[in-house]
Amino acid sequence: MLSGKIKRLVTIGSVSALLMCSAAKAELASLSDNELSSVDGAGIGMVFEDFVFNAVTDASNGQSFKISGIKSTKGEDVDITVSQLYIANAGSNYGETLNPVNLGRLVNPYEIELLDGNDIGLDDKAILQFAAPKKIAAGTGYDCVSASAVEGSGACSSRPAGTDAASGEVIIGERPDLGLKLQVQVGANAPDSLSINAKSAVFDGSYLRLWGDDSKNQLVGEYRLNFYTPELSISSCDASGQSCGNTIYMKNFELELVLGNQFQPMSIGVTEAQDGSIQPGNFVFEIASIKDYADQKGYMANLPSNGLRSGCNGNTSCESAWDFFNGYYTNPDFKSNLRIGAMHIGDISGSGQNFGSAKIEGMTIQYLKMSSHDL
Amino acid sequence: MLKNIKIRINVLLLSLLPLSFTAVAELSSINDEEMSVISGQAGVYLSGEITLNENGGPIKNAYFGDCTDDKRCGARIAFQTKQNGGWFVLDDMKGSFSFQGLTLRVRDINSGFGGDGAKFNSQVLEIGLPDQIKVDKFQYTYATSSTARPSDAGFQQTDIYTVEIDGDITMQGNLLVFPTGNN
């Protein structure tokens, strides 16, 4: 009896061992030199599937989210309570209905990757990049702003909710509603509430690149923020949220902010005094001067006197200086844009005021230094 | 070919025999049907609690204490963005997080995602977020400082703001992590 059992067990064991061997064999295949050369550990893709984030302050439930330690100019404490911070699918009705959303697409995810600096104009540097989904060729993606964009209408990869035409599958949407509601109390004054909401937000094409600068011995970077929303609203109410002032609505809001580039990296540090000693308590944010870079490369000394390329009279160092500045001023990647389709104050559909559209386009930062100071 | 297999089975028989004698009481046979549904892809379900310096850290000096006096008892992280420059500090970090139902598994995606699943057709590491994270009096202070440690010479620090979180935070969904090619 026992021996029969053992026999059966052993047979099953050995057969399963054999099966495992053959299965493993089928999974493996050798890589050719050609295939191997293209393998590299470029990055990690991340997609949030069916994602909802919500942090609230609700005293009755023992929930709180506070920021304190800030003082007003009169020395009164400023207490900020985060009433709500949410990320949910479009159609949330300003954070009331939190439905799941996807952030990033499997075919174009959020990424953490290491870039070869030689590919992006930063010679012999390894660059750490945090990137939102990339933009795609114009006309192959979705309009960045419209919450009802269809395929082929723009360059953004993130899609609004709908149905995929090719597969017929439901798209739950990759454009979240975002909101932050704050309650601000200064000293013993009655608290005010401030609420900022963005509908169907798109961040495609945004990235943060970080690397080390040898001459400054400092961490420097390049930041590009693309932020598109069909409606960005800001409102202020009393603490209960009942008595509200007029809401400012910005329709079809497009921000393309560029801070720093490969010639003018941005840096952030703790303030130093004139003598180089550290004065803590304040920070300094700087975008390097393009003139410094051009000086260093010898471009400034070689510019044609009349500003025209023909004024170089064939001098190659003069022509390369002219070409550098021409490239710098014409490259759209170095320019910041802000477009507001329409600004409404008050009731957006009825009696509110429409202040029309506003645009700031093609802004180039040649040098920027901001430092904070105590009052 | 058949001969080869036979030989292999015999070798396996010999090697498995001593093992099966000791294990026999625990084992029972499974049939082909039962075997066919077995695969090694079960994930991990995690619940846990992370508490940071609830009763102070190991260092006790003029600056750090044990949470009963007016000294700081939380953890301190200082980072510098410039050589010989000032320090950004996350100071007095303390409190706890607890969660239930963080899951980890490998998932094969070849459909869904509004048509992206079929194009992707690959495996991802799925981190199932725990739905609710209970935060118990978590706080930190953001500051800038002249030195990394409060015990260093010439230490000066300015606290900029303090964040305090208490209660439940909703975090639903799955985080899918996968390698991406160089594009």
Please give a handful of descriptors for the protein shown.
heterodimer, A: 375 residues, mainly beta, 2 domains, 8-stranded antiparallel beta barrel, two-stranded antiparallel sheet, 4 helices, 19 strands, B: 183 residues, alpha+beta, 6-stranded antiparallel beta sheet, 3 helices, elongated, disordered N terminus
Q: Strands, helices and their partners?
A:
The complex is a heterodimer of chains A (375) and B (183).
Chain A lengths: L1 H26 L5 H5 L5 E14 L7 E8 L5 E13 L11 E3 L6 E7 L9 E6 L30 E2 L6 E2 L4 E11 L5 E8 L7 E7 L4 E21 L9 E12 L6 E7 L5 E10 L2 H7 L19 H15 L5 E10 L7 E2 L3 E6 L4 E4 L4
Antiparallel strand pairs in A: 1-3, 1-4, 1-5, 2-3, 3-9, 5-6, 6-11, 7-8, 9-10, 10-12, 11-12, 12-13, 12-14, 13-16, 14-15, 15-19, 16-17, 16-18
Chain B lengths: L1 H22 L8 H5 L7 E9 L22 E5 L7 E23 L6 H5 L1 E7 L2 E15 L11 E24 L3
Antiparallel strand pairs in B: 1-3, 2-3, 3-4, 3-5, 4-6, 5-6
Overview of the molecule:
The complex is a heterodimer of chains A (375) and B (183). With 375 residues, chain A is mainly beta. In chain A, 14% of the residues lie in helices and 41% in strands. Chain A is built from four helices and 19 strands. In chain A, the strands form two sheets. Chain A has an eight-stranded antiparallel barrel with strand order 1-3-9-10-12-11-6-5. Chain A has a two-stranded antiparallel ribbon with strand order 7-8. The longest helix of chain A has 26 residues, at 2-27. In chain A, 29% of the residues are buried. The model of chain A is unreliable at 9-26 and 36-41 (pLDDT under 50). In chain B, strand 2 and strand 3 (87-109) form a beta hairpin. Chain B has one domain (35-177). In chain B, strands 1, 2, 3, 4, 5 and 6 form a six-stranded antiparallel beta sheet that branches. Chain B is built from three helices and six strands. In chain B, 17% of the residues lie in helices and 45% in strands. Chain B starts with a helix and ends with a strand. The chains are: A mainly beta (375), B alpha+beta (183). Chains A and B meet through helix 1, strand 1, strand 2, strand 7 and strand 8 of A and helix 1, strand 3, helix 3, strand 5 and strand 6 of B. Strand 1 of chain A pairs antiparallel with strand 6 of chain B.
